[in-house]
Amino acid sequence: MTTNDRGNRRAAVFDTTLRDGEQAPGNGMSPEAKLELGLAIESLGVDTIETGFPASSPSDFEATRLLSQRLTRARFATFVRATRGDVDAAVEAGGVRNHQIQILATGSDIHLIHKRGISRAEGIREVRDALAFAGRLGITDLKVAIEDATRGTPDLLAELVREVLDAGATTIGLGDTCGCLLPDEYAELVAMVRQWAPPPIRLATHCHNDLGLAAANALAGLQAGADEVEATLAGIGERAGNTSLEEIVAAIVYKGERMGLYTDVRPELMYAVYENLAKKIGMSAPRNKAIFGRNAFATQAGIHQAGMLRRPETYEYLEPERFGRQRELLVGRHSGRAIVRHLLRGLDVEPTDEFVESLYEELITSRVDGHCDDLETLRTRLAARFAARPEVRV
Hints:
The protein is of the alpha/beta class. It has 15 helices and 13 strands.
């Protein structure tokens, strides 16, 4: 892993928005949409873009074909089961140049018995065969994604890791497929596997958000020795979703020195790419989502606004402009007189106590619902009133 002049390790980013993110209900994208989004995601500075599962559909096959020809900096990855047919389809779609094949391995007895109906030995044998076959086709970047690794026993995982490394795997991905671990538990898993797979073997985190801990688990995994984090824009993905790329980047931007990490992803470009993604899959932004939420950098609370009008950092730890966002001070029934004074000063109107009180009653205390107005809307409305009736300016 690369380090900077301060000795911080570079956290590599594997973006799976177009594969794991897309497979959730309602998130389907055309090959052309994936091409546009994939190129935009590449511009963020991620290392790897997972294009899809070529053997699963003509759409994923075509998306892989298009992106393999157009990506210029990031490598692309394809998702395959441990079968020669899947590997062959991936290579047919994307060729071998700049291509990482990600082979799915079964990492728990729960999945071996109840999902696959195979033994541990059979699970290992199929992955070894797929690795060997991919190698014969010319693929040198071979990643083994261990599904449900977080519910696998140490003896199962140790044997699996040892066997896939012997068969040529260059990266191991540890899937918290059901989002069942706490950060310290996931860190312990990464540290354990790191002992079996020392550098230059790469370790990748792949965390789901069922407990709301995907980003926390991924960060814990990076601190425990993982080289790479798998993530999606806005955390889209199965069930409660995946690790949110923007949350990981924000944490490293603001807390990287403490964690000993840095990232090359450009945070100021992420929101525009997210808006494009949301439009293509018809996803509306939640109010309270970190970084990308509608209210992530907005407030109507009077106490907060009074502080922020004096100095934004009183209630704003993350700086909106660093993430392509803007600060919003909204006027609603929880606002205070400070925002009224701010409005009037912006209109070159003397904010006398009497005038402030009259507008406070009109604009704020009279509200009975949760509706908020943005400052520009109110500023325009008041400016028109003052122009028509100058006497109401005092």
